[in-house]
């Protein structure tokens, strides 16, 4: 990883800038892209280890304060991780792995007790309640779950029966175990799991506190090991870095595919517009913790990071270098300025959502039917992300990059119609 210390970054900034109109070497642009990935996944791993320590402390000595510290660690861990999501779509190594750590939405009744629902004809496993049952039948076979281990979660439960909602691992499984269900609908408030769900003996609420702790421990440990693996893929000699650096055209295609697909089909469509169409808080990305505003914001920041070639780490270090922005500026300065304006607009729109949520107008409240203020905030982000994607498509043509497929979403057929 290069330029990982502020002192190193200061030296780099003191170096002569690229002459106006001269393009950086494409390999140097890809090197910066890989350096940012290495730094962001390393930060994701470090913050997941902090979460692991907080979970261990909660299990060892349950208390309201210990539960809150674990929740705070989970929210902090999302900041660097969400900035890595721009590496999906264009990088098969990341896209094939991502479902282990960030899959959503989930049928949480598979994991633990739920109120009002759990399981259906389409997904019988949605009512398994592994925490409460040491044995159960899954996919026609008897399963021994007397010990809840990472292997049980990863190899037996996760996406059981090929159903994506059977999410047994990753950030959102941990989130559910820390917060519990959010039963407030589109009203204020997140999940309210009591700390006594991890207490011992007669103080235990809702039963099976020892097994709930086992599940939380297994899921958190697995998250750490999964992030260890991905962080290694972006280090020197790692498979993800090597794949990006192998061919300049394919590497640029990976960058633009990731930027466009996250902007359009994934964030503007599946994560924002769809929930608004359905007025459904279950479609929130971080639905148990009411942290969705941050997830959206840092997804947007990740897109900006890879375009301008800068990432600020969780300890304040700066990773920077020749960027896609530099490459576009050399080919078409006006198009580069347009893209930077589009990024500024999308970050401003996502920032407005974040500001409102932090002031008490939470994302699930914004999704309520008839809530015009919430609708405008969310759709402001959707439209800005779509505009951004249109410019990404023009950049693709300007640079002559082939092999770009930007993932779409049925929920984006007519995004501007909500304003009419």
Major pleated sheet: 2 strands, antiparallel
Helical proportion, percent range: 55-70%
Percent strand: under 5%
Output the strand order for the largest sheet: 1-2
Mean pLDDT score: 91
- Rg computed from alpha carbons, rounded to a whole number of angstroms: 22 Å
* Helix and strand element order: HHHHEEHHHHHHEEHHHH
Please identify the structural class as seen in this structure: mainly alpha
Give a count of the beta strands, DSSP E runs of length 2 or more. 4
Low-confidence stretches: 1-20, 415-420
- Sum up the overall morphology in one term: globular
Distance between the amino and carboxyl termini: 49 Å
Number of helices: 14
What does this 3D model show about the protein?
The chain is mostly helical and 420 residues long. The chain contains 14 helices and four strands. It has helices at 6-14, 26-60, 64-82, 92-102, 150-157, 171-179, 209-233, 239-246, 248-278, 292-308, 324-331, 333-358, 363-366, 372-399, and strands at 135-138, 141-144, 310-312, 318-320. β3 (310-312) and β4 form a beta hairpin. The chain is globular, with a radius of gyration of 22 Å. The protein starts with 5 loop residues before the first helix and ends in a 21-residue tail after the last helix.
Outline the secondary-structure elements.
Blueprint: H1 6-14, H2 26-60, H3 64-82, H4 92-102, E1 135-138, E2 141-144, H5 150-157, H6 171-179, H7 209-233, H8 239-246, H9 248-278, H10 292-308, E3 310-312, E4 318-320, H11 324-331, H12 333-358, H13 363-366, H14 372-399
Antiparallel strand pairs: 1-2, 3-4
């Amino acid at each position: 990883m290069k330029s990982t210390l502020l002192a190193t970054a200061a030296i780099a900034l003191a170096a002569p800038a690229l002459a106006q109109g001269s393009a950086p070497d494409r390999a140097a642009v890809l090197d910066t892209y890989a350096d940012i990935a290495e730094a962001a996944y390393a930060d994701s791993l470090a913050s997941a280890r902090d979460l692991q320590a907080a979970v261990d402390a909660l299990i060892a000595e349950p208390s309201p304060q210990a539960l809150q510290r674990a929740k705070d660690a989970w929210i902090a861990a999302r900041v660097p991780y969400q900035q890595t999501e721009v590496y999906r779509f264009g990088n098969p190594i990341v896209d094939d792995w991502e479902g282990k750590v960030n899959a959503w939405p989930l049928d949480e009744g598979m994991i633990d007790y739920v109120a009002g629902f759990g399981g259906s004809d389409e997904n019988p496993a949605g009512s398994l309640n592994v925490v409460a049952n040491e044995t159960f039948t899954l996919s026609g076979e008897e399963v021994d779950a007397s010990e809840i281990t990472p292997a049980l979660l990863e190899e037996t439960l996760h996406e059981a029966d090929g159903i994506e909602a059977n999410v047994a691992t990753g950030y959102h499984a941990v989130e559910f175990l820390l917060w519990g269900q959010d039963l407030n609908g589109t009203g204020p408030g997140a999940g309210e799991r009591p700390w006594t769900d991890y207490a011992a003996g007669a103080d235990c609420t809702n039963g099976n506190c020892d097994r709930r702790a086992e599940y939380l421990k297994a899921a958190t440990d697995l998250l750490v090991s999964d992030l260890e693996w991905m962080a290694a893929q972006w280090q020197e000699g790692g498979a993800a870095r090597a794949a990006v650096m192998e061919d300049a055209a394919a590497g640029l295609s990976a960058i633009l595919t990731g930027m466009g697909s996250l902007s359009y089909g994934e964030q503007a469509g599946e994560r924002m517009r769809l929930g608004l169409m359905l007025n459904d808080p279950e479609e929130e990305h971080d639905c148990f913790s009411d942290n969705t505003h941050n997830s959206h914001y840092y997804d947007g920041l990740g897109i900006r990071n890879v375009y301008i070639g800068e990432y600020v780490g969780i300890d304040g270090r700066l990773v920077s270098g020749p960027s896609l922005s530099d490459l576009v500026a050399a080919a078409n300065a006006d198009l580069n300025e347009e893209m930077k304006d589009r990024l500024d607009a999308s970050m401003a729109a996502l920032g407005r959502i974040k500001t409102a949520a932090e002031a008490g107008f939470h994302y699930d409240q914004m999704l309520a039917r008839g809530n015009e203020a919430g609708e405008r905030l969310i759709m402001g982000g959707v439209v800005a992300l779509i505009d951004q994607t249109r410019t990404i498509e023009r950049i693709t043509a300007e640079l002559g990059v082939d092999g770009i497929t930007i993932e779409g979403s049925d929920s984006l057929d007519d995004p501007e119609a909500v304003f009419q």
